[in-house]
Amino acid sequence: MSNNQEFLEVKDLVVEYKSDGQIVHAVNGVNLKLGKGRTLGLVGETGAGKTTIAKSILRILPDVGCKIRGGEVFLDGKDLLKISENEMRKIRGNNISMIFQDPMTALNPVQRVGDQIAEVVRLHNDSHTNPRKRAEEMLEIVGIPAERYMEYPHQFSGGMKQRVVIAIALACNPDLLLADEPTTALDVTIQAQVLDLIKELREKYNTAMLLITHDMGVVAQVCDEVAVIYAGTIVEYGTKEQIFDHPTHPYTIGLFGAIPDMNEDEEWLHPIDGLPPDPTNLPKGCPFAPRCKYASAECEKGPIQTYKTADGHDCACCHIDTVVKENKK
Amino acid sequence: MMAEASVQTRKKPRKNSEFLRVMKQLSRNKTAVIGLIILLVEIVLAILAPYIAPYDYTQMDIMNMFAKPSAQHWFGCDDLGRDIFSRILIGSRYSLSCGILATLIGTVIGMAIGAVAGFFGGKTDNIVMRILDVIQAIPGMVMMIVMSAVLGPGFINTIIALAFGTIPGMARMLRAQMLKVRENEYIEASVSINCSKFRIIMDHLIPNCMSPMIVQATMGVAQTITTASGLSFIGLGVQPPAPEWGAMLSGSRQFIRQAPHLVIFPGLAIAVTVLALNMMGDGLRDALDPKLKN
Amino acid sequence: MTPVIEVEHLKKYFTTPRGLLHAVDDVTFTIEKGKTLGVVGESGCGKSTLGRTIIHLHESTEGVVKLNGEQVNHLSGNALKKAREKMQIIFQDPYSSIDPRKTAEQTIMEPLIVSKKYKKSEIEEKTDELMELVGIDERLRRAYPHELDGGRRQRVGIARALALDPEFVVCDEPVSALDVSIQAQVLNLLKKLQMEKGLTYMFVTHDMSVVRHISDDICVMYLGQVVEKCPSRELFKNPLHPYTQALLSAIPSVDIHNQTERMILKGELTSPINPKPGCRFAARCPYVKDACHQAQHQEEVSPGHFVTCCRVREL
User: Fold this and answer.
1) Residues of chain C found within 8 Å of residue B21, distances taken between Cβ atoms
2) How far is B193 from chain C (nearest CA, A)?
3) Per-residue DSSP letter, B290
4) Which residues on neighbouring strands pair with residue A33, listed in sequence order?
5) Do C42 and A190 make contact, defined as CB atoms within 8 angstroms?
6) C-alpha dihedral over C211, C214, C218, C223, to 10 degrees?
7) Which stretches of chain C sit within 8 Å of chain A by CB?
């Protein structure tokens, strides 16, 4: 992780939702850093706050009942949470794009796919580029023949639709791509194609990417750095090698343990007992403490500090030494 | 011990607890309770109307023609000098029962038809829907006039005619809902555990289609009351001098400029009833939906 | 011993406005008692339809399904009801497979009430047993589905499927809607139940690591046809059909140091409507030859390992 020249920096982000008079603590003090051309994987389970983080960066959270309580989001040194909506509109699409999870609903069903790409170009680029030409070019880049410009989304399969969504996201050469589970809705063989495409395009344009996923396998293939998020808090943060070779937080270890192993036969899987905490009523200390076998009174006292592990990555666990020792055996 | 305790708690009859849950839920909803209270008051007034009405509703009083609301005549008097308050009280007996009964009957029959069409689909659906198309193609008022003319005037016949008018809309709506709900896997699941068709319709499909139906039905009552007035207006519905709200409304249209109270009070009576029904209907819909439990 | 389930040349076609959709096309297999057959394939390959056709949620177009040696796919009326009690299904999406207006308890006891075999007290007793069996707390008895998390909902679905003591259960992607940590809980539960009750499973999924973990034998399906069928271990060690090879290599591996060279397929699934004769994978297959466009036959390449590919021996 290069410490100078961070392209995207999220500092102490806190986001809350209000629902039925209760406050949902979706994101609780998240810090992230992302260099140009790097890819950060944000891994966590349903409801961990992954998508909320991405939406906060892009400032597209719903206006009603949702509030960014605190924190800063720097893109190239500019705090995105402080600029006006007009300025933000220019940044969206031009500098930051987002790929949504479900390609089936992300496209307008009654507009030609080519026009949907061209529209983005028209809205964001200077007058020099011909939108139609650029759209055709983008289709070719994502591996769809330009002749299909005039077709409608229903004539495309799921994988093709996701390619179109990617083409729209990349049409203006964004510096930062927020990919929210871009392959979850796709089949494995199609997923492989799309992941390959994303990797290729990222290298070609030196785009920084925040990849949100729950699939450790996808992270292993695409990311440089990994942040593991649990109940709105980052519990472990480091390079891919650090996290995959030396997972240290009990939650990360549990997550790896729960995946059926492709190389070994085991009679039983090792699930993490219990359930994620209720986001309206989070424990005072470590959010993972109620499910953790290392938990002690210390874990429940108050906010958990972040510790450096032996190989230098961050881990928010106060029993870090015990965990490391036990998992070596 | 634990097991015993649990068996003990289960002795309570289940059906009852479900009913209690809905009632409890309903009672927690302020708007619904207000709606319910207004309706109950109206019903009590309707029952007691002959005893509490200050004047005879047919008694004409030339001196008080178009009298403004006063201490003697709370709501004023109409073009024949009859006391409007008394007429509204007595009229509530006809209007309320007409509106609520006709809608209820129409809804039940409409739902039965819609359920058959929506569940069986294919040919059955096609035939049923085409018949409904034909019925709906005839303007509602004309249909009603034909029905009343065939059945003859009178209270019961009016209700039958009005109920008939609400059937197609209800059937159509339930069918549309059903086609949507039918796609859920829990319907397939109930087939796999050998539920009979009747059970699937009654236990799984209809409860999950109820929400829009309740709203539609409460709105339907208002519609029915006004339609009933149309029938009385042309002499086919409830026979004069029975003071039915809709008839009072349409009968005094011509005086709206010089004596607006002739129109305002019956109109208000209809509006309040409809509002109360809507408030209660919304509350009932929410109470029936376990998702809105808390 | 007769296998619990025998499927012979089973076909299920749907008529669509654009032609005949070959959802399941000539599928044959058997499952022994207490074993699990994994069925893998991508969306639209007919794996879910196959499961539903076997337990008679869909009428089969052609072919034979036998339960304990007796043909069941032509049954109707009471005989069908009886057969269905022995064959149950666990659905993919616990959010849509449970009636949102029924409590956990009501959902679980419904099959018992419908079967009319039990007295009221027996039904309550059995419901308690089932809830304990699948691990639903006593306090959640009156909970509605929206108050339960995905894993618990799936447990309710499992309890409902097991209420009538079936012998054969189709698990239609039962864990794909769940998070990894919860997924492991449910997989362990399914395995435990299989051991305790001697259940026979047909496990439909698109997740190769899950199918490897739970299955004894695996069927790989592509556009309604079985392209490869063999014991689970053999399939992962020695995949022979080009599609299986592509499928296996496409799985993103968690092992970051040994990322193998991936075989990335070109193109997309072709339509299963009015398919041409010959291998349906031919359009995407890197080894395609003229012979591939003729009708294909299943071959037993080694004992228990069946492949439908005319070039399998050359490759």
Assistant:
1) none
2) 5
3) G
4) A9
5) yes
6) -40
7) 42-43, 149-151, 179-185, 187-188, 191, 206, 208-210, 212-213, 233, 236, 246-247, 249-256, 259, 262, 264-265, 268-269
Token match 């022979």: residue?
C240
- Mapped onto helix, strand or coil, the DSSP state of residue B274 is helix
Predicted confidence (pLDDT) per residue in A290-319, tens digit: 888 888 888 888 788 888 888 888 999 888
**Residue C272 per-residue DSSP state:** -
Q: How far is CA B9 from its chain centroid? A: 39
Q: Where are the alpha helices (DSSP H) in chain A?
A: 50-58, 85-94, 103-106, 113-124, 131-141, 158-170, 188-205, 216-222, 240-245, 250-258, 297-301, 320-328
C252 to A215: CB separation less than 8 angstroms, yes or no: yes
Does pLDDT of C1 surpass 80?
no
Cα–Cα distance measured from residue C18 to residue A177, given in angstroms and rounded to the nearest whole number = 39
Residue B154 DSSP symbol: S
Contact A260 C151 (CB under 8 A): no
- Spatial neighbors of B18 by CB under 8 A, at least 6 apart, are none
| CA distance readout (Å), C170 to A288, C53, C84, C165 | 35, 10, 12, 14
Task: Identify which of A162, A6, A148, A174 has the alpha carbon closest to the alpha carbon of residue A75.
Answer: A6
Tell me chain C's radius of gyration from C-alpha atoms. 20
Name every residue whose Cβ is closer than 8 Å to that of residue B266 and which is 6 or more positions away in sequence: B84, B88, B91, B245, B246, B248, B249, B252
Contact list, C164 vs chain B (CB under 8 Å): 193
pLDDT exceeds cutoff 80 at C216: yes
Using alpha carbons, list the distances in angstroms from residue C115 to B190, B272, C25, C118. Answer: 12, 49, 33, 8
Q: Quick one: DSSP state of residue A148? A: G
Q: Do C99 and B204 touch (CB under 8 A)?
A: yes
The answer to whether B82 and B58 have CB atoms below 8 angstroms apart is yes
Contact at CB, B290 and C138, closer than 8 angstroms:
no
Q: CA–CA separation, C232 vs C35, rounded Å? A: 12
Given an 8 Å threshold on Cβ–Cβ distance, is B6 in contact with C111? no
pLDDT at C249: 86
Task: Answer for the pair A20, A67: CB distance below 8 angstroms, yes or no.
Answer: no
Q: What does the pLDDT look like over C12-51, one tens digit per residue?
A: 999 888 888 888 988 999 999 999 999 998 877 888 899 9
Lay out the sheet containing A66-75: strands in order across. A22-35, A6-19, A66-75, A78-79
> Tell me, what's the pLDDT at B218?
82
Rounded to the nearest 10 degrees, how much is the dihedral formed by the CA atoms of A157, A191, C11, C15? Answer: -10
CB C91 within 8 A of CB C157: yes
Is the separation of the CB atoms in B25 and B293 below 8 Å? yes
Kindly give the confidence (pLDDT) of every residue in chain B, 294 residues in length, as a single tens digit, with 9 standing for 90 and above: 333 334 444 444 445 566 777 788 888 888 889 999 999 999 999 999 888 888 888 888 888 888 888 888 888 888 888 888 998 999 888 888 888 899 999 999 999 999 999 998 889 999 999 999 998 888 877 888 888 888 877 788 888 888 988 899 999 999 999 999 998 899 999 999 999 999 999 999 999 998 888 888 887 887 887 788 777 767 777 776 778 887 788 778 888 888 888 889 988 988 898 888 888 888 888 888 777 654
pLDDT averaged over chain C? 88
Strand (E) or helix (H) holding C134: helix C120-134
How far apart are the C-alpha atoms of C122 and A64, rounded to whole Å?
51
For residue C100, the chain B residues in CB contact (below 8 A) are 208, 290-291
Q: What is the pLDDT of residue B12?
A: 42
Measure in Å the smallest separation between the Cα of B222 and chain C Cα atoms. 29
B293 close contact with C: CB closer than 8 A: yes
Q: Is residue A236 very low, low, confident or very high in pLDDT (cuts 50, 70, 90)?
A: very high
